[in-house]
Structures are given as C-alpha cells and as structure tokens.
Amino acid sequence: MRSATIRGISPWRGRLPALAAAAALLAAAAAGAAPSAVSAPDTLDSRPPLVAVLSPAGGETLQAADQETLRWSVDESSWGAAPAAITVTVFDGAEVLAQALVPPDPDGTYAWVWTVPDASTTSAVLAVEAADRFGWIGADQGGVFEIEGSGTGTPPSPTSDRLGPVHPNPFNPGTTVAFNLRAAAAIDLTVFDVRGREMATLAQGDRPAGRHTAAWDGRGPDGRAAPSGTYFARLSVRGADRRDELTARLTLVK
C-alpha cells in the first residue's frame, strides 16, 4: 500500500499541536504543577491515514459520458475513528477535471460514481487525500488512464504490443482484458494466481494487428469461483519479428 503527500502538504504540520502539548506538560512538571487532565491514548496518533487508490489504477480507457465508479480505501481504524476529511480529485496534468469532498466512512472502503467528462486525454489520474482529526494527512495517486471524448477519431494502429487496460479492475465477478498487437502474431493470454498456478486461458492462437479483448469470469480450472486476491494476466506474443511477454495485474474483490 502506498502513502504519499500531494499538493505540497506535509504531515509534519499535523504533529505541531501534539509537540506543543507535550512541551507544555514538561514545563508544568518542571514547575511542580500537576496537569489538569490526562489525554486518552488515541491522542498519541503517530501516523497519517494510509490511503490506497484502487480504481482506476492506471492503464484504463474511459469513455466520455459513462458512469464510472472510482474506488479507494483509507486505513485509520487503528485509532478507532474515521478520517475527518477526504478529498477526491481527478487531474489531467495540472488541470482539475473533477473534485469532491467525500464523507468519512469507518468501514474504510469508498466508492464514488463519476460521470466521465467529454475531454479527451491520455494523462488523467485519480488522487485521494485524507486528513485525520489530529491534522495528519495521507494521500495516494493511481496510475495514468485515458479518456476518449466524443470527438476522438479512429485510433492509429499500435506501434507496439500492449496488454491492457483491464476493466473493471478491481472486479467482481468478471472482467475484460484488452490487448493491442502492432502486427499479426500468435498469442496466448493466460491468468495466473500469485503462486504461478494457471487459472484460465482467455485467448489463444493467431490474431491480426489491432485491438482485441478477452473476458475472464473469475473462475479457476475447476469451474469454481476464485477467491479474492491478486492475479496476473500474461500475454505471450510470437510473431515473425518478435517474441514478447507482457503482464497485467488483476484484483478480485468480494
């Protein structure tokens, strides 16, 4: 899980009130005065909320006017309280495409339905910032994703083999894996678990150049639903002029 600070906000600012209070108690003790109250243990909060952007995680292509669910998690449960404030922002470079304040949820998992704007871009990102009641600030940012606006023309032929995007991701129970081939090739698209065990073969055989998709229903080789966790889609490409191995991460949540 990643934790970062965005827009130049430093979590050290959240420690100043606690440091000042500690200094006051030491001064009172040195003067022989007894403190008037004892702080509860959770006021000794020593870390910012742990934020993790889940979706879009990067590599997806969203369509203008579609309803997309943005997902993230915030871990502040060790202190028995939800974050005091959560800010969700979608950036296109330095431009803000959307921003919202989301009410805190003690459960720690969040979903925000977003109407994708009609703004073609290849550099959109989702950033989430959470502040707790002590002033600590934690943040995370997903990978770059694309938005296809209504004026987007036919995309040019791919100049390289590419695996992704995977959409939705995270998913339950199924998802679709896209891949691009710069030239005709024999392919093998397979899903593995974290131990390297093969879960499913999604596509196999000769494919022409261009964009292709294959679906995984979230089931293993025995036909049973796979458990929650991390999986990997691996695309093997065998062409007259190349041999490529590409991997994409999949997250199954229930």
SSE map:
Blueprint: H1 16-30, E1 50-55, E2 61-63, E3 67-75, E4 85-92, E5 95-102, E6 109-115, E7 121-131, E8 137-141, E9 145-148, E10 162-167, E11 175-181, E12 185-193, E13 198-207, E14 210-216, E15 229-239, E16 242-252
Commentary on this structure:
With 254 residues, the chain is mostly beta strands. The chain has two domains: 11-148, Immunoglobulins (Immunoglobulin-like), CATH 2.60.40.10; 162-252, Immunoglobulin-like, CATH 2.60.40. It contains one helix and 16 strands. It is globular, with a radius of gyration of 23 Å.
- Structural class by SSE content: mainly beta
Number of domains: 2
Molecular shape:
globular
Sheet having the most strands: 6 strands, mixed
The total of helices stands at: 1
Short account of what is shown:
Helix content is 6%, strand content 48%.
Summary tags:
mainly beta; Immunoglobulin-like; four-stranded antiparallel beta sheet; 2 domains; 6% helix; disordered N terminus; 254 residues
